[in-house]
Amino acid sequence: TDVAGTQSPKRIGILVIHGVGEQTRFEYLEAIAGNLFKALSQDPSRKPQIQIRRGDQVPLHAPTESWRSAPAIVSWWSQDTQRGIDAHFHEVTWADLDMPSTLTNWLRLVGWGLAMPGIKLVDSTRTFQARQQHVCLPIRLSSGRRFFVRLQLFGVSLLFFLMLISINMFSWVLRRLSITFAPIEHARGIIYDYLGDVKLYQDWAIRDDGLEALGEKSRASIQRRAVRALAAMAGEVQHKRLDEYYVFAHSLGTVIAFNALMELGITLPNHFSEEEWTALPVALKTQAGYDAPDPQKPRRPYWLGKRDAIDRAALFAGLKGLLTMGSPLNKFAAMWPAIVPVNREALAHPVPWINVADRQDIVAGS
User: Alpha helices, DSSP H only, in the chain?
Assistant: First the structure.
């Protein structure tokens, strides 16, 4: 309650994680926040508003917006609680971590996609074996069910590559006629993005480009961003700047969210820099009852103690809901279960999980 005696608005955080595609920063966040505002606007009694939180001034025609880390707040009135609600939007972006566009990488993508029916089952890794007393694999599928999933993925890959060949031929003919048709180029990019992003997250190759992903798998860098974002949301709750928070994830972003939520308390600190670890609220830190297993991915920093850990109960104390849309988690659980292990440690409170899947979506799982 504020000084005037009126009840202050409830402050919630919404962390959005995008799926496949070349989303720029704030692009997916803008879509989710915008759709929420449009939905709220259908009921005048909710009185929705949007606050835009801009950052520093940007040059004229700058390619990106200069917004703060929480660029938008969508507010509305709740008739149920007779109280205002302020939704602070945050995001995890990872499209910029894609592999460089080279002929070698393109050939690898083609080979990977067409080999999907016989691709090696990833149900064991050195890292997973070292941690298996604390996590478990998803429910093991029957050989028949797993074969059906392989056929599904092969069908998706074959469909996209046939489309890609057709589009490339059509594009070549148009170029010979000096005709530019932007939708064709856009469609070709979507196909590369779709399969390329799945391969990016599944790939076991060690990166040798850039600084953020150098010397580790691509998904390690992506997971680091998601873990840091969750910790930032939990910190906002600890500092009383938020009352609670939610996670909205789409497509491949649902796998990223699942990995972050399932990470072990003792391996969570591996995703932070020393400066970030020091700045974390004390309430989020704890000492595990066992030494950190070896090896770990990402590698454990030398400045961390053997039992330094994050308290998952405190980290997720403010988490009140998970929304997944178009999730391929069942495909990963069938083909690469070691990539989506399940944490055996139950949370202190149940967290509702709503999964939305279109029956026409051949990738999404119910």
Answer: 27-41, 103-114, 126-131, 143-176, 182-202, 218-238, 252-262, 274-279, 312-315, 329-335
Of 318, 324, 307, 325, the residue nearest 347 (C-alpha): 318
Q: Over the stretch 251-302, which tens digit does the pLDDT of each residue have?
A: 999 999 999 999 999 999 999 999 999 999 999 999 998 888 877 778 889 9
Q: Is the pLDDT of residue 200 over 90?
A: no
C-beta of residue 22 within 8 angstroms of C-beta of residue 189:
yes
Region of 263 on the Ramachandran plot (φ > 0 left; ψ -120 to 50 alpha; else beta): beta
- How much is the average pLDDT of 71-82? 90
271-279: long-range contacts, CB 8 A cutoff, minimum separation 24: 271/223, 271/224, 271/227, 271/228, 271/298, 272/227, 272/228, 272/231, 274/301, 274/303, 276/228, 277/303, 277/304
- pLDDT (tens digit per residue) in 118-140: 777 788 777 777 777 788 888 87
Residues in the chain: 366
77: which strand partners? 84
> In this structure, how many other beta carbons lie within 10 angstroms of the beta carbon of residue 184?
16
Residues 6+ apart with CB under 8 A from 13: 70, 87, 88, 89, 90, 233, 236, 237, 242, 244, 245, 246, 318
Could you give the CA distance from residue 318 to residue 3 in angstroms, rounded to a whole number? 26
| pTM above threshold 0.70 | yes
Name the residue among 338, 355, 353, 275 with its Cα closest to residue 137: 338
Phi first, then psi: give them for residue 308, nearest 5 degrees: -65, 130
Q: State how far the Cα of 182 lies from the Cα of 198, in Å rounded to an integer.
A: 25
CA distance 312 to 135: 14
C-alpha pair distances (Å), 316 with each of 33, 68, 125, 156, 230: 23, 24, 27, 36, 8
The whole-angstrom separation of Cα 155 and Cα 363 is 11
